Amino acid sequence: MSVLFAHLGELLTGLLTTLELAAIAFPLALVIGTLLGVCRVSPIGPLRAAAGFYVHCLRNSPMLLVMVMVVFGLPYLGATVPLFGSVVLGLGLYFGAYICETVRSGIAGVPLGQIEAARAIGLTFSGVLRQVVLPQAFRSMVQPLGNILINVCLGSALGAAVGVQELTGSARQFNLDFAQPIPTFIAAVIGYLLITLTIGQLTGVVERKVRIRR
Amino acid sequence: MKLTRMTAAVGAVVVAGALLAACGSAPATAPGGAAPKPAAADVAKMISQDDAVAGAPVGQNLPHSPMLDKIRQRGELVWAGSRNTLGFSQLDPATGKISGFDAGIADLLAKYLLGKPSAKMQSGGSDTREGLLGNHTIDVAIQTYTMTPERAKLVNFSGPYYMAASGIIVKSTDTTIKTAKDLAGKKVATESGAAKTALVTEVPTAQPVLFDTTAQCIAAVEQGRADAVTLNNASLLGAIQTRSDVKLLDATFGSNPFGIGEPKDDPVFKQVVDEFLQKIEADGTWTKLWQGTVGKLLKTPPPTPPKLGSVPGV
């Protein structure tokens, strides 16, 4: 146990890497997911089909497969992204598909009357989206987006499999060096709990602030 | 809408299949049009511990202890091993058979204890071995398990039964890296645990990049993510058989003593396993096993079996 406290720094460095991965990957997933979501409700058929195809592909693959594809598959297409960037990209691409579906359901929650009214005052498709639909959709999406952010944090553990030493990776390494499996993994679990409980609390606060009372 | 969803789903399956096909058909020929290398499956077919197991000794008048009684009652030995370490412990998914030096040691130990080589492999990571031994989920760990004083605080070790040196793989075109010294300041793909420890002990300034499998480490070098791979040289030998764009250097470094891990709470069981190792090393079974497994990859004369208890952590 004392050896664990003496080397807590290594685990904290791993925790920091986990936070960095999530902090960059989640906004990326948000951008990808929103674009896809808009494509899936757009009036243009091929765009709808393409976005649907992407979501089906990604949501029906294990995340490790996506990660391995980005890290070891992309170089075959001539694009070698550094490992940290690859993990961020993998997380962004994968959770983008989930966020797309969240955005879609958020959009579906906006009353049809509002969309008709927005069309009636002469707004274009993008005007309707940007000024009427998406702001309301996002306000109703806080809770599911919080869940996805939690999943991004936990999913970043796969970075350990492809050479990025985040919290899980540093815990594994520490355990192999000092053979202290139980305390080490309990410490890692506490690290993840701190992250996810904080996100859960924040999500609740934000959600209450921006909730739409209908 | 229904139609597009169906099309998307079917399309996804088709694309996934195409990707798989593309992965499966990686070119096996060298850029210079050299002879194609054998597929990994063909190399794996050469490796078998059956000859050694057939002529192996059975323990006579073995004592009673909680562990030994449990194993007898169960009728099989449960061991922690790997599925994908060619030469040591490689699973053939078609037959379900595990072959290699470690798998052979497991079969031999099962035969020694039970009279028949019925050993069941539990595949875990290298993270969980001490935990699994501690709570008796497994009887022994035979998994390129490097003996260290830290680990010996938690588990008993019998061994070493194999001394592994770290080997180095670089791109075929690389001329800058010739020995371990040249890895200083370079990015080196390796696996966490013994291999990484050996690397940073030997070359403190090397930057280890950790992957999960030998294949991923080598892909990292092929794709320029790392300058070299270092792992125990028998696993590297297995991997090098099937590739021509990377080469294995003659230089090795460090030495990892592999031991059989046992639960801490049964000293009698450890003694029995010690006697088992002494017996197979003395009667030539060890050498026969080496020839049927690692020796198929190394192509050197068989080494002298390591002396039991000759390293710290026993």
UniProtKB/TrEMBL annotation, chain A:
Domain ABC transmembrane type-1 residues, every copy: 15-203
GO terms for cellular component: ATP-binding cassette (ABC) transporter complex
Gene3D superfamilies: MetI-like
UniProt membrane topology term: Multi-pass membrane protein
InterPro entries (alphabetical): AA_ABC_transptr_permease_3TM, ArtM/GltK/GlnP/TcyL/YhdX-like, MetI-like, MetI-like_sf
UniProt keywords, alphabetically: Amino-acid transport, Cell membrane, Membrane, Transmembrane, Transmembrane helix, Transport
CDD domains with a match to the protein in the record: TM_PBP2
BP terms from Gene Ontology: amino acid transport
Compartment annotation: Cell membrane
GO molecular function terms noted in the UniProt entry: transmembrane transporter activity
PROSITE patterns in alphabetical order: ABC_TM1
Pfam families noted in UniProt: BPD_transp_1
Positions of transmembrane segments: 12-36, 57-77, 83-100, 145-164, 184-206
UniProt similarity note: Belongs to the binding-protein-dependent transport system permease family. HisMQ subfamily.
Record's protein name: Amino acid ABC transporter permease
Organism: Amycolatopsis carbonis
